[in-house]
Task: inverse folding
């Protein structure tokens, strides 16, 4: 098994979290980093493992220069959501595999472009929807597929957290654009919930009606939506960015019982009244290890770009419905 040389684009907190995981994987070398803020790039370079000569990895203010000079095997993108598109395309066109911190993009057309270029270049693009690796959700998906609670008719999907406190208030360093669909808790945390919803049900949405409470800046803080899935299952979605938390829960109501899932717990309630707390296995991998394994030995990506595109479609539809007051039909 060979190694993977990875370049990092975007040197903030998310990149530092992923750096620790990447550095622990045999055969992975972070060979350089780039950030328009030179001090952020330099700080990150100082945190990365030293090169073979004992020196710091090179730091760039331009991601294109990093890609051209270092020719990494893969590039990991941790820039603000609205700036994912350019570095992703530049990396793909240079022949690199790409990891993108979720979401893949903030609008559907950019996400479509990324998927098409990745296919044309035969490159792997993994997206950081790591909720798919939660043992509770892995088990929920399997139980639903096996028909453990019969046909699912209703799902409630709730996520609440102190988003404002976490992100430094309404005007924060994430630089959300209120004109872009999903600029706020919907794109920052809601996309985890929406991706988990689509992945666990293994189908897409067809209709959305949504409402939002927005700050004066235009950033969404509370979102509620009614969603109809392809098989007719109804979904009630709720996101709050000004609640004590965090709180994450998906509840699937079937004809023969229900399944309630949190980040670390799965409870099955059957029609005979019995309640079972299902034992969960330990996580078998993290999102970074999955991406590296996909490159080195062909393991399936946890969240490939084409599946992440479906999440962006639903995110955009929710934001558009809330903005227009109209039901939005997908597809």
Result:
């Amino acid at each position: 098994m060979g190694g993977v040389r990875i370049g990092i684009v975007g040197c903030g907190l998310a990149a530092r979290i992923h750096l620790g995981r990447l550095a622990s994987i045999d055969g992975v070398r972070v060979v350089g980093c780039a950030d328009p803020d030179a001090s952020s790039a330099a700080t990150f370079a100082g945190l990365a493992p030293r090169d073979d000569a004992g020196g710091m990895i090179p730091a760039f203010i331009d991601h294109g220069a990093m890609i051209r000079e270092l020719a990494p095997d893969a590039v990991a993108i941790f820039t603000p959501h609205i700036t994912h598109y350019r570095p992703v395309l530049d990396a793909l066109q240079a022949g690199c595999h790409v990891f993108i911190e979720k979401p893949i993009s903030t609008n559907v057309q950019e996400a479509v472009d990324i998927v098409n270029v990745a296919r044309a270049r035969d490159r792997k693009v993994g997206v950081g929807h790591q909720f798919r690796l939660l043992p509770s959700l892995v088990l929920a998906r399997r139980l639903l597929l096996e028909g453990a609670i019969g046909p699912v008719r209703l799902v409630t999907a709730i996520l609440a957290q102190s988003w404002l406190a976490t992100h430094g208030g309404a005007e924060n360093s994430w630089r959300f654009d209120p004109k872009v669909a999903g600029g706020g808790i919907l794109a920052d945390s809601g996309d985890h919930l929406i991706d988990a919803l689509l992945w666990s049900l293994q189908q897409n949405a067809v209709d959305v009606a949504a409402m939002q409470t927005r700050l004066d800046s235009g950033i969404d803080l509370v979102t509620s939506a009614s969603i109809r899935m392809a098989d007719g299952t109804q979904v009630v979605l709720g996101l709050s960015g000004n609640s004590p938390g965090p709180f994450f829960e998906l509840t699937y109501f079937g004809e023969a019982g229900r399944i309630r899932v949190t980040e670390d717990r799965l409870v099955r309630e059957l029609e005979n009244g019995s309640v079972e707390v299902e034992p969960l296995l330990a996580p078998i991998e993290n999102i970074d290890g999955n991406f590296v394994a996909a490159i080195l030995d062909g393991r399936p990506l946890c969240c490939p770009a084409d599946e992440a595109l479906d999440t962006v479609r639903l995110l955009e539809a929710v934001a558009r419905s809330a903005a227009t007051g109209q039901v939005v039909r997908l597809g």
Summary: The radius of gyration is 20 Å.
